[in-house]
Fold these 4 entries.
Entry 1:
Amino acid sequence: MNSAGSPPVTTAAPIHAIAASDPAGELSQAEAGLLTVLRIYCEAAAIAVVIVGLIALYGWTLGIGWMKYVVPGLVEMKANTAFGLIFAGWSCWLLLPEEPGTRRRKAAQILAFLVILIAALTGAEYLTGWNLHIDELIFRESPYAVAASSPGRMAPATVVAFLGIGAALLLIDREPWPRVRPAQWLSMLVALIA
């Protein structure tokens, strides 16, 4: 217990370190294989998220409408959403190596903080009604865009999802209580929103 009477916050071993640091051979071959498959899946998912964000930004840069849509016929992906996806995917990818270095971890934390910052500023715009001029900072949205009550502004659900995923990335290896990782709960919240 710390001086405040609450249990100490510990840093749990990252999942990628569990398989690498199994000198006693406690993991079966099946478990080690499953961890390898999960690691490959996480890498592929992180790269896919970055690619989706880059395609959307490319569409914004060149004015190619179909590249701004994740699903044709729905609302286009806003530029801030694309940046948030790129930062989140890149942060996740930086956290995945066998032995993450301090520089990689710091870079991942900075990227996760940027995701939270984008979402927090947009959320403040929704809550206060102010226009902080971050929505069309880089690209201007067409005045004829579908469902553009606030041009360039990401949806409120996206704001909540980015707050959750950014916080999950910052807390990914934190375990304040035994067998409880806030990042897992935050990730489940984001999955429900998606």
Note: The chain is about 55% helix and 0% strand.
Entry 2:
Amino acid sequence: MSYIDFFKKRNRVRNSILDLFNKHMYLMVETSYFEPYDDFIKCIGRTDKDKTVKVINNNGSIEILRPDITFNIIKDLSTEFTQPLKVYYDSTVFENDKNGIKERRQMGAEYLGNMSIEADIEMIRLSTKVLEMIDESVVVVGHTRYLNGLLKEVVDIDIKRKIKMMIYKKQPQQLMELLQTVELDTEIKDKIIELVEVKSFDLETLSSGYLNAEMKMAISEITYLMKAVDGTVTYDFSLLSKFEYYDGIIFKGYVKGLNSPVIRGGRYDKLSAMFDNSIPAVGFSVEFDDLVRSVK
């Protein structure tokens, strides 16, 4: 493919996504490329700090080139937020890797101020619409509160993170060995192992045995979603995100031939608390260049 053909294809994909956001009445926002390093380290569960691109401003303070856009959107809007708001962005994020500074084009949408599950449904539907331009794709939906509820009895924070990492990496053997060292009810351990081993998730099985309030809420919301969302969507209660600020429904969009998701999203109601506000929010980002390469 020539450069001209590639840029034509790139513009076509970009315009298609922009048309989708505008059709659903989302407003475009721009945020700063820079973020105070002190703000970054306050919010756990974002990009690894060693992968951030750091700069020093004229005052001698450390800033970073933004590793994601959602954080700055919440920061900019939280102080003046008065009503539900739908926004989208089309910009660049930055990361340090072994080859130097890496720039990635990201597009995405955020629905702020709506705590109902209907907002989650809208985000998932938009994600499936974005992926319609690709022949073989799927959106996988999970819920952070199911696993968080299951791990409620695990007191040690480091152990809890290790368990999540082994579930994230699908390592049943290592997980079983680790759980043998943890004082935990056998039924809970079995359910944790099941999250790694099971290929398809049955709500009836998940609803049996040990359940607490958080797990029940997760099952209830996923049950509702299953009835409301059509298209190429599957459900996975072991689904995890590298962003720890997600605290509800999460989802990822995959295309054939790529190991990493081209879409990442979910609910993050607690993130605004960093800025002394309480704004329920749900959104997703699109790894634009990966998406373009996947479009025939």
Note: The chain has eleven helices and eleven strands.
Entry 3:
Amino acid sequence: MRLFTDNLALVAVESDVVREMDRRAIDEFGIPGAVLMENAGAAAADVAGDMVGGRGTVLVMAGSGNNAGDGFVIARHLVNRGVEVEVATAVTGEGYKGDASLNYRIIEKMRLPMRLWQRPPGDGKTYGLIVDALVGTGLSGKLRAPYVEMIDFINGSGTPVLAVDIPSGLDGDDGSVRTAAVNATTTVTFALPKKGLFVGRGPFHAGKVILADIGMPSNVYPRGKALPRS
């Protein structure tokens, strides 16, 4: 997958625009959602691998929706590269649906170390990288338990953080924070950047922003927002 870092604010859009792109890619062009999730997770795994550099364990912190599914794909790709990975989830395996459930079951069969969230995770060990796959752009209203506690753990860990699509708790449109938000070192965002990464409190929470091309048909991109050809 191609990655971009330059002039991303110029092509940033509201979260609903990307959701409509997802819908069209799936419904009109027949691309399974699992394929888009695989592409997103694989691209983010490339970024995560560079960030951890083979030093230390990666902790993937997964919420309950498709953002968690991206995290499970990241975990699988990192393990396949020889990186030690642990996964902490906000819900039990039965709480996942659709493509997120599919990818949860894959890493479960791979016997990756997984646990339902507890504070601190495991025996209080330190990590080389934390992947924030808690909450994506579908956030509405205030965060519920255990998300605030999980975000507090991430922000207090002193560990580099990779946010998946958007730092958890950050509004994808106006960059506001209603309850709490992850302070990411790097954010890898998918298809098109979200406006909230560049306005309001977005720049503080997002860190370095990287855009990943996840293989959507060029036809679904809004006019003037297409990715560069190379």
Note: Helices lie at 15-27, 33-52, 66-80, 98-109, 147-156, 202-206.
Entry 4:
Amino acid sequence: MIRRREFVTLLGGAAAAWPMAARAQPERKRRIGVLMNLAADDAQSMARIAAFLQGLQQFGWTDGRNVAIEYRWGAGDPERTRKFAAELVALAPDVILAVGSFTVLPLQQVSRTVPIVFANVTDPVGAGIVANLARPGGNATGFLTFEYGISAKWLELLKQIVPGTTRAAVLRDPTIIASISQFASIQSVAPSLGVELTPIDTRNAGDIERAVVAFASEPNAALIVVTGTSAIIHRELIISLASRHRLPAVYPFRYYVTSGGLMSYGPDVIDFYRRVAGYVDRILKGEKPADLPVQAPTKYELVINLKTAKGLGLEIPTSVLARADEVIE
């Protein structure tokens, strides 16, 4: 029989041990899904993931320690992307990072409850991903790639660098609302600049090459590449065709120019993924995508490749060079 004094002593000791036991229990490891639109071995994929992981670490999240990250790579294949969207949702992650409307829409077809943070989406309202930018209202929020007005700047830049341009091919993905709308934005300023536009679909390499070769057969031509997964996947081909056929070209992102493209005007894509980590952190801590506003780029950068310009026989006006954020020698 336990005496009263012994019982009280035992009870007090147990009570003191409870908080210690609770503290000793490991915190539940959170799960993050990542659905990329490119292939795993694409240099852009690796750079984006590195920035995302760096951002997570700044908020105290480390893969393998307190979060487990599941990656899937769509590689521009719609069927593959739909399959991976279903796989990730089945894992019941706390949140999913999705890149481009190409990946967000398949995820939302599977689930309207799993939280999604997106990057590189140009028109989430038009695509039906969110109700509005200020209050998304559903299970997704994230970061805009562009405002449509920026698209007109691409043609204006071409005219400043090559005033004799009278024809411009616009490489776009006709399956993406954003590509169509960007083409419309460029078209709105084309007549005043004396430029006739020709749309070229970027669905596969063969179509791109045939269309660009045919377009380049006439003089005073240039290229404009708008956003879209297919253009990113085929970027090396597009840059090579522009060089081979001596076509001045403007691109939406810096990495086209570092790969040999003439110039780009657009946001810092890698910075998106550091900022995405902030929204993922907030959702892991209990906030809802419906209450987190979609954010627009904070800065657009003009990047010019002088080596490519020289190869095309172009002299970049000093007024344009003075506005450049980066000049590649």
Note: Residues 56 and 181 are 33 Å apart (CA to CA).
